[in-house]
Design goal:
This protein is α+β, with helices and mostly antiparallel strands and 491 residues long. It has 3 domains: 3-177, Beta-Lactamase (2-Layer Sandwich); 212-332; 335-481, 2-Layer Sandwich (Heat Shock Protein 90), CATH 3.30.565.10. Helix content is 57%, strand content 16%. A hairpin with a 2-residue loop joins strand 10 and strand 11 (414-421). Helix 1 runs antiparallel to helix 4 (155-206). The chain is rod-shaped. InterPro entries: 2C_sensor_his_kinase, HAMP_dom, HATPase_C_sf, HATPase_dom, His_kinase_dom, HisK_dim/P_dom, HisK_dim/P_sf, Sig_transdc_His_kin-like_C.
Length: 491
């Protein structure tokens, strides 16, 4: 059932119910008022006739000629008043005289019977059933009851005014029903338009269009509905925008990871090829370096070609060292991980770089927190990583010198090796690429030292971080997961 039909039925029901109730009360009052008036008039007529009837009635019955005489009296009464019947009964209830313009029979009965008071329902039944008002008066002779005079008013006289009131009430009810339906139509239009706008906006949300904001109507209830819809539309738009941003972010991450995987796959393939090539090239360089050393030993010190051979030997050694570092980075070696403290590994790396640091006027310091937990580590791989960080720091501070502070401490379930130098620092652009293979800012750098550091840290399940600003030195932090302390078994 539609809202329009519900409103129409509601207004019609309210109108009919209220009009019917008011009309019923008015009709009952009108019928009751008419009855009371007719009862009083009928009683007065019967009382006036009773004085004439008293001369013709005795306790033992009617006198001879009473019927003709009383019929004449009743005839004049019927002509003067709108009566259906008028009759006289004796003490025994026998009809003595009867006048009825409608030719109705006169009802016999004892003179003591009088009509009881009527209920509202009985009074309203007179609108339907053709029944008049019967009233009367006792006939007394020397104070003794000898009969009664009865009069019967016509049905139309009783309910005529009530029927006219009913018809006028029906017309008024019809008018109010039509007016109520018109009001219901206006009310429905006032409700339907905002509701339809909400429905259209909801369909727009279903089509994933931008969230609409509806104008607030004047009615408080509809204002609350539209306000709630606007709030829902705003939240849906925010959620949709957030989801789109998340989808775009995830797609970007997937794209980046896919590119990284493809790049790593290509690098792995290239690394395998390059490792084989570097191995063969390293062998050739070792041969060249060996023969150069033999020739240099046999040449006299003043030989003019000896400086050139020294340069060949030096560059050959440099190329061989580069090949060895590349092989360390590219070769897929099996890590020998064992539980061990990190202090000896770090201390050895700092001691190895000590002479080069002293020669470059770099002061080194090592601070180790006592009671550090062990780590699961490949000592050789981590030693190479720590040595690369120390060498890079010393080279960055040459020739002016500086300070290299190395710390080893525990932090949030990890053992951290920290390398802080007072060198020139790293530019912001270069900071994003320092751990990439073959990226370097040094004239003679290979770009593999920090790549090896990151590879070693990630192999051990750790991370490497860098903080630096130009002119404020650099800070490298290698974070490795600490082993959980072993618990003793309780017997």
């Amino acid at each position: 059932m539609s809202l329009r039909l519900k409103l129409f039925l509601l207004m019609a029901g309210i109108t009919v119910f209220s009009t019917t109730g008011v009309t019923a009360v008015a009709l009952w009052r009108e019928v009751q008022r008419g009855q009371e008036l007719l009862y009083r008039e009928g009683a007065a007529m019967a009382q006036a006739t009773a004085s004439s009837a008293a001369r013709w009635l005795r306790p033992d019955g009617a006198q001879p000629g009473a019927g003709e005489a009383l019929t004449a009296v009743l005839g004049r009464l019927v002509e003067a008043a709108p009566l259906d019947r008028a009759w006289v009964v004796d003490r025994a209830g026998k009809v003595v005289a009867c006048v009825s313009p409608t030719h109705e029979d006169c009802t016999p009965g004892p003179p003591t019977e009088f009509a009881p008071a009527e209920s509202p329902v009985q009074a309203l039944k007179r609108l339907i059933e053709p029944e008049g008002i019967v009233t009367g008066a006792p006939v007394l002779r020397e104070g003794e009851l000898v009969g009664a005079v009865r009069v019967d008013f016509s049905h139309e006289e009783v309910v005529g005014s009530a029927r006219r009131l009913a018809w006028s009430s029906a017309l008024v009810a019809g008018f109010w029903i039509v007016l109520g339906q018109a009001f219901a139509a206006l009310l429905f239009a006032g409700i339907a338009r905002p509701v339809q706008r909400v429905i259209d906006a909801a369909h727009a949300l279903g089509r994933e269009e931008d969230g609409r904001q509806l104008a607030l109507p004047a009615d408080q209830e509809l204002r609350d509905l539209v306000g709630a819809f606007n709030a829902m539309s705003t939240r849906l738009k925010e959620r949709r925008d957030e989801n789109q941003r998340l989808i775009a972010t995830l797609e970007k991450r997937v794209e980046d990871k896919t590119r990284d995987v493809l790049r790593a796959d290509r690098l792995a393939t290239l690394g395998g090829i390059a490792a084989g090539f570097a191995h063969e090239l390293g062998n050739s360089l070792n041969v060249i370096r060996g023969y150069t050393a033999v020739v240099l030993r046999e040449l006299p010190a003043e030989h003019p070609n000896k400086p050139d051979l020294e340069a060949v030997k030096r560059e050959t050694h440099r190329a061989a060292s580069l090949m060895e570092r590349f092989l360390v980075f590219a070769r897929s070696r099996t890590t020998l991980v064992t539980p061990q403290p990190l202090e000896p590994v770090l201390r050895e790396a700092v001691e190895v770089v000590g002479p080069a640091a002293a020669q470059g006027h770099v002061r080194t310091s090592l601070e180790i927190e006592p009671g550090l937990p062990e780590v699961s580590a490949d000592a050789e791989l981590l030693r190479q990583a720590f040595l690369n960080l120390c060498v890079n720091a010393v080279q960055a501070m040459q020739p002016g010198g500086g300070t290299l502070a190395v710390r080893l401490f525990a932090d949030r379930g990890a053992v951290v090796a920290e390398f802080r130098d007072s060198g020139p620092g790293i530019a912001a652009e270069a900071l994003k690429h320092v751990f990439e293979p073959f990226f370097t800012t040094k004239a003679n750098g290979t770009g593999l030292g920090l790549a090896i550091v990151r590879q070693a840290a990630e192999t051990h399940g750790g991370t490497v971080e860098v903080e630096s600003r130009p002119g404020q030195g650099a800070l490298f932090r290698v974070r490795l997961p600490a082993r959980a302390p072993a618990t003793e078994a309780i017997a």
